[in-house]
Write a structure and sequence with these properties.
Residues 1-6 have low confidence and may be disordered. It is elongated and about 115 Å long. Helix content is 44%, strand content 17%. It starts with 11 loop residues before the first strand and ends in a 5-residue tail after the last helix. The protein has 18 helices and 14 strands.
Length: 552
């Protein structure tokens, strides 16, 4: 007997696995005499905070190297491998060119074991197990990415959708009439292994957020996220700390989720749309059937290479909107649930890195654009100090952008079709290529401006030197005609000759300085003198302007 589509409330998610990837802009270090980088200072203070620098999976003991790590490594092209894992090691490496490490530095904290979420006021809390809690720093880029990986079993499908919509928000977008935050979870609590609360959200403190935005023109983040990131502190807050960060994007954090269901093919199209757009579509909102994202949902966001209804399976559907990556599959297929070789292992390793790199690209480009805008806003062309500072910032940004292009910017990550297809789908929705072209053009325009300004200054210097040379030519020809010493001053006392030399030198220096000061007007006078169409009176007026009259 054919089975009918189940009620969504009856549909259970057997395994829910999710990862938040939150990029943040790091403020330049402002410590006198410190030439270190953010992660070096972060590592140096490990005794004062719970974050610890972790090594990669490439340990000295091959017995500790798992197959899932090997599969992750070989999934990527060689230049991506060098970025993720560092350069290849060899016993025959040249001492002049030792192998470099990965430009990615990862810190992890293990004092938080679970996350307790109260989605709505009065509802029963849900506990999620924390798998990993990491901070990713990157060489040459003032950027850090927070990765929060959580897991739960046997949740209702609508609960999972509610989590994807409400969780991962840095601050409330408003407040309900009852005072609770709008669109975010009612209460989020970090729990230690013994069940004690380490930190909790404070989105109900409406005045805190209003006063912060009014005073700083910048959003404030919820306390549970702020406590998670310490000793990193929000840039505009009054909290002490030299490792400071700012938000790069909107308050909703990019999220990827792994959802294991019984018989996912029984889901209706509306349920698929709500699941794929769960981060942006309110659970209580009716489906906007006329929205292009709904009409062209399968075409825009679905990658159905493995969405095959066969005994071989794996009955796995990938949905990506750019800010979200959702993988849905059937629990009946062991390969889908395999955490060592199957889709779950690939989700946590290969697809996580694809998602991480795509958002690294976007966040980095936003950082470059932010630096350019800030440099232009701070520019005051009437102040030489401001102009010099502007030039230094633009040149430094240009050099960093070049290193970013050659070290981090990829169009192809893998020869595996589906992995590469997911990277392109994610990057296209994030508009990374268009944003790269925009930032590249902006930096190039700034560079051209600096080059033209330098050429202009060099041209002005050449003009001044030319004017002085012409004046010196007159004196040289005159003294050459009469002889070097027109008036003999070789006789007399030493004091007399020294005084004469001092007076003569002062006069000549004054004349040269006067010529330099009036070099622009002298240049105009010489140009007027060479103009055959200009009358004699006009030429005398140009000479008068040089001697101190009004400038023509």
């Amino acid at each position: 007997m054919p089975s009918s589509a189940p009620n969504e409330d009856d549909k259970r998610v057997r395994l829910f696995h999710a990862s938040l990837v939150w990029p943040l802009l790091l403020e330049p270090l402002a410590i006198d005499g410190n030439q270190g980088r953010h992660w070096e200072l972060f590592e140096a203070r490990q005794g004062s905070h719970p974050w610890r620098l972790i090594d990669d999976e490439f340990t000295d003991d091959p017995g500790q190297f798992k197959e899932r790590h090997y599969r992750e490594f070989v999934s990527f092209l060689p230049y991506v491998q060098r970025f993720l894992y560092g350069e290849g090691r060899s016993r025959h490496s040249s001492p002049d060119d030792p192998p470099g490490n990965s430009p990615m530095h990862v810190f992890r904290r293990k004092d938080i074991a679970r996350l307790r979420l109260t989605l709505r006021k009065g509802e029963v809390p849900i506990e999620l197990h924390i798998v990993h809690l990491d901070l990713y720093f990157f060489h040459d880029i003032d950027l850090v990415q927070l990765n929060l990986e959580v897991r739960a079993h046997d949740l209702a499908l609508d609960t999972v959708r509610e989590i994807l919509f409400r969780f991962g928000r840095a601050y409330p977008s408003g407040w309900e009439e009852g005072g609770e935050g709008l669109h975010n979870v009612y209460l989020a609590e970090w729990l230690a292994a013994d069940g004690s609360v380490i930190a909790r959200s404070d989105t109900e403190r409406r005045n805190k957020y209003l006063e912060y935005v009014c005073e700083h023109r910048s959003p404030c983040i919820s306390e549970h996220w702020a406590s998670l990131l310490r000793p990193l502190v929000l840039a505009h807050s009054d909290e002490p700390g030299d490792l400071r960060y700012r938000l790069v994007e909107y308050q909703r954090m990019p999220v990827m989720s792994f959802i294991a269901l019984d018989q996912p093919r029984q889901l209706s199209r509306e349920q698929w749309v709500r699941l794929g757009l769960a981060a942006t579509l309110h659970p209580n909102e009716s489906l906007p059937v006329n929205d292009p994202s709904v009409i062209e949902f399968e075409k825009r966001y679905c990658q159905d290479r493995f969405w095959t209804d066969s005994e071989a399976g794996p009955n796995t559907r990938f949905m990506c909107t750019g800010n979200t990556l959702t993988v849905v599959g059937d629990t009946a297929f062991p390969f889908f649930m395999d955490a060592e070789r199957g889709v779950l292992a690939q989700f946590r390793h290969q697809y996580f890195l694809v998602f991480l790199i795509a958002h690294l690209h976007r966040a980095s480009l936003l950082v470059f654009s932010e630096i350019l805008v800030d440099a232009v806003n701070d520019l005051d062309i009437s102040q030489d100090v401001s102009v010099r500072r502007f030039k230094r910032r633009i040149r430094a940004n240009f050099e960093t952008f070049l290193r970013f292009t050659h070290r981090y910017w990829f169009h192809e990550l893998s020869e595996r079709p589906h992995l590469q297809a997911m990277f392109r789908l994610c990057s296209d929705h994030l508009r990374n290529d268009e944003m790269y072209d925009e930032v590249h053009n902006e930096i190039r325009e700034m560079s051209h401006y600096l080059d033209s300004d330098s050429q202009r200054r060099q041209s002005n210097t050449v003009v001044r030197l030319t004017v002085i040379t012409i004046l010196g030519l007159i004196a040289t020809v005159t003294t050459g005609y009469f002889g070097m010493n027109i008036i003999p001053f070789g006789d007399g006392s030493i004091l007399y000759r020294a005084l004469h030399g001092l007076i003569a030198t002062s006069i000549f220096v004054a004349l040269v300085l006067f010529a330099v000061a009036r070099s622009k007007r002298l240049s105009d006078f010489l140009e007027a003198l060479s103009d055959e169409r200009l009358s004699l009176g006009g030429k005398f007026r140009a000479l008068w302007a040089v001697l101190g009259g009004r400038k023509r």
